[in-house]
Task: inverse folding
């Protein structure tokens, strides 16, 4: 257990660091997917295999592909210098982030969580589904949250199409055409 | 089996305390916050926000597995968080694309007015 935990923790944290400091944006996206894969491994260790499958399908699959498409549409070639990717608040934000991390880590370490034991919660997919629909032991708010999430996903899909749609005459093509002509 | 070997096997099979997962989540959250603060590229800022969301998901699932009175609800919250994060990334990248069309840049330091 401790070997798997150490391996996954190293994988997650090193690739999270790689996302921040990598000069190539595509490398950042690939580091991010490795980090998500490590989190999926943590979910397996935490007796949530269904959630690990969701994590691999949605994050490692879909979100990484969407972000890679975003990079393809918007990025210029790789930058050479480190200073061009990082703004002037480097040291101040390092202090802030270290402060946040140390504060939260110390708080969760000294807090008394009571009688904790791995595998104490329910682990079956059946209970997960019942929880998500707010039936049985689960709080009823989950049924509302489930419906709101589905409406939100529909709204997000429609909004993504509307926002990124190319306006007639004002799009990229006309600008490119102007540049070619001039 | 000699006692040293038995000790080593016990160490390897020992249960991991809840705090370890929470500390990993806290460090991952801090790295994501750091990246979201310092990077100039809007797409990388989105990636760092996703890292922070995943760190919180990890903490939720750890609580759901370790606390007996949690009743496995953290996992359900984690699924809702994943759905909302997917919606956020879709709309966010669409906005980045629209900004890139009008400004020819995704540098968040240069994008300081809302009307194109």
Result:
């Amino acid at each position: 257990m401790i070997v798997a935990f150490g391996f996954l923790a190293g994988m997650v944290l090193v690739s999270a660091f790689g996302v921040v400091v990598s000069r190539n944006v595509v490398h950042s996206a690939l580091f991010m997917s490795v980090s998500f894969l490590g989190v999926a491994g943590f979910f397996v260790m935490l007796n949530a295999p269904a959630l690990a499958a969701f994590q691999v399908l949605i994050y490692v699959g879909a979100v990484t592909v969407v972000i890679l498409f975003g990079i393809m549409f918007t990025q210029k070639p790789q930058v050479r210098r480190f200073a061009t990717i990082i703004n002037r608040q480097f040291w101040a934000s390092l202090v802030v982030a270290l402060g946040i991390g140390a504060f939260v880590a110390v708080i969760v370490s000294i807090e008394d969580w009571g009688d904790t034991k791995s595998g104490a919660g329910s682990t079956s997919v059946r209970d997960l589904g019942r929880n998500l629909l707010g039936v049985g032991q689960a709080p009823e708010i989950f049924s509302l949250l489930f419906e709101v999430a589905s409406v939100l996903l529909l709204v997000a899909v429609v909004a993504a199409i509307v926002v990124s749609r190319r306006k007639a005459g004002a799009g990229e093509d006309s600008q490119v055409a102007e540049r070619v002509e001039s | 089996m000699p006692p040293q070997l038995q000790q080593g096997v016990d160490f390897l099979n020992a249960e991991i305390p809840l705090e370890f997962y929470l500390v990993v989540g806290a460090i991952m959250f801090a790295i994501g916050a750091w990246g979201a603060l310092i990077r100039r590229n809007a797409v990388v800022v989105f990636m760092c926000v996703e890292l922070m969301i995943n760190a919180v998901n990890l903490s939720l699932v750890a609580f759901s597995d370790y606390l007996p009175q949690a009743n496995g609800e953290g996992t359900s919250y984690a699924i809702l968080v994943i759905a909302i994060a997917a919606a956020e990334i879709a709309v966010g990248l669409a906005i980045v694309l629209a900004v890139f069309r009008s400004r020819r840049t995704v540098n968040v330091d240069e994008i300081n007015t809302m009307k194109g």
User: Anything to note?
Assistant: Residues 34 and 60 of chain B are 21 Å apart (CA to CA). Residues 73-103 of chain B form the longest helix (31 residues). The radius of gyration of chain B is 21 Å.
